[in-house]
Design goal:
This protein is an alpha/beta fold. It contains 18 helices and 14 strands. It is globular. The structure holds flavin mononucleotide.
Length: about 425
């Protein structure tokens, strides 16, 4: 680990200085008027799985598998989704309700419904406008966006793109000085929360990436890329966008002092050299004055440790089943963490959210809100910003319908009495 504080202004890559790109910022709020185009509406796209099928048709196989896959046998990946079926609803019937209140407050900011877009690495590979489109769609829907360290657009531009709250997810790739510079840039740009991911001391064994050649795609020789030709020929739109965007992007927010932005291909090695420990939380807490969130907690003990080291928020997460296969499904881990935290921090969860009813179940089991990962990335891959908008429209209307069917007037009124399950309590 490198030592020492960066002094003065953090390094800002040229991309960040191009000026604002989007509408001026307004307070987050419900923006039900944002509609997706007819081709993305019912009956063509009714649920998130429909967007997944479109993403599969739009992306080369290697990129789709990067998004869709998990670690080892993908047991945790599947279990994250399946476990929602173990929780059943206990509706209150014959309750008249014309409208329900979906709003909630998360880490000091109001969300139109209880969801944020999870940090996703390499978004610019999935779509050239990656983080910018995702942040715009989140802002328009009145919810939050969290930008990964492994991102191709400068965080100042992402902040400009969204009218909603934007958080930054930190990996210590590039060392402490590079991380401190990024934290300072996020603070100056107006990011609202810092999420430190603690479940990635090394990258998980994502077998689909090895077989598919993700490494060769990111940095191999021209000859090693010839294997992708058959996939590229049948995905001309993705290839055209990728080439117009200049090919494999750099990490605009990991600026190595004296060297500039890190190359994407260097990430896996850098991750393995950069594990975060609870000791790091001390300097991170000093460098970042706002809400500090530990992402990747699966036990009550770690939740307590995170709070003891300055965290004000917890994300119950197993990285979408991409790290330790066999780790507990997150909905199953949630009640233990909620009990251990005992109201001393806000508890969020992610993993397996594919329907609005999943969001409602997570809230009944004690989550303040959820992070949505693949569900929005499928939309981004399918149609850029409008695809993300459609994914969010699907989830928000699901949540609204579920509350009405439950006979519950608001997100704030949800609790364990609305569900039954092997690990929930009333
Ligand atoms: C393609 C992909 C890339 C991801 N990249 C990151 C990342 O850079 N940082 C991080 O903390 N989590 C990352 N995650 C994990 C997500 O933030 C989130 O925990 C997970 O996607 C939730 O599960 P879900 O996809 O089932 O919703 C990634 C997940 C996916 C699918």
């Amino acid at each position: 680990m490198e030592a020492g504080h960066s002094q003065g202004h953090p390094a800002v890559p040229p991309e960040a200085r191009d000026g604002p790109q989007s509408a001026p910022r307004t307070p987050a709020g419900p923006v039900a008027t944002v509609r997706s185009p007819p081709s993305l509406r019912s009956p063509h796209v009714i649920n998130i799985d429909d967007l997944r099928r479109r993403a599969r048709r739009r992306l080369p196989r290697v990129v789709f598998n990067y998004v869709d896959g998990g670690a080892d046998d993908e047991v945790t990946l599947r279990e994250n989704c399946r476990v929602f079926q173990d929780v059943t609803f206990r509706p209150r019937q014959a309750v008249a309700m014309s409208s329900v209140d979906l709003r909630t407050r998360v880490l000091g900011t109001e969300l139109a419904f209880p969801a944020l877009l999870a940090p996703i690495g390499y978004l610019r590979l999935i779509h050239p406008r990656g983080e910018l489109d995702a942040a715009r769609a989140a802002g328009a829907a009145g919810i939050g966006f969290i930008q990964s360290t492994i991102s191709g657009h400068a965080l100042e531009k992402t902040r400009e793109a969204s009218t909603g709250p934007v958080g930054y997810q930190l990996y210590l790739v590039g060392g402490r000085a590079a991380s401190e510079a990024a934290i300072e840039r996020a603070r100056v740009a107006g990011f609202s929360a810092l999420y430190v991911t603690i479940d990635t001391p090394v990258a998980g064994l994502r077998e689909r990436d090895f077989r598919g050649g993700m490494r060769e795609l990111l940095g191999g020789s021209f000859a090693s890329k010839l294997r992708f030709l058959p996939q590229f020929v049948v995905r001309p739109r993705w290839v055209a966008g990728f080439l117009r965007d200049g090919g494999v992007p750099r990490l605009e927010n990991v600026v190595i002092p004296g060297e500039g932005p890190m190359q994407l291909i260097d990430v896996v090695g850098a991750l393995a050299r950069s594990r975060v420990t609870w000791d790091d939380f001390r300097w991170i807490r000093q460098a970042w004055p706002g809400p500090l969130v530990a992402k990747g907690v699966l036990t009550g003990d770690d939740a307590r440790r995170a709070i003891d080291h300055g965290a004000t928020g917890i994300v119950v997460s197993n990285h979408g089943g991409r790290q330790l296969d066999g780790a507990s499904a997150t909905l199953r881990a949630l009640p233990e963490v909620v009990a251990a935290v005992a109201g001393q921090a806000e508890v969020l969860m992610d993993g397996g959210i594919r329907r609005g009813s999943d969001i409602v179940k997570a809230i009944c089991l004690g989550a303040r809100a959820v992070l949505v990962g693949r569900a929005y990335v499928y939309g981004l891959a399918a149609a850029g910003q409008t695809g993300v908008t459609r994914a969010l429209e699907i989830l928000r209307t699901d949540v609204e319908r579920t509350l009405k069917l439950l006979g519950c007037p608001s997100i704030a009124a949800l609790d364990g009495s609305y569900v039954d399950g092997p690990f929930g309590s009333r």
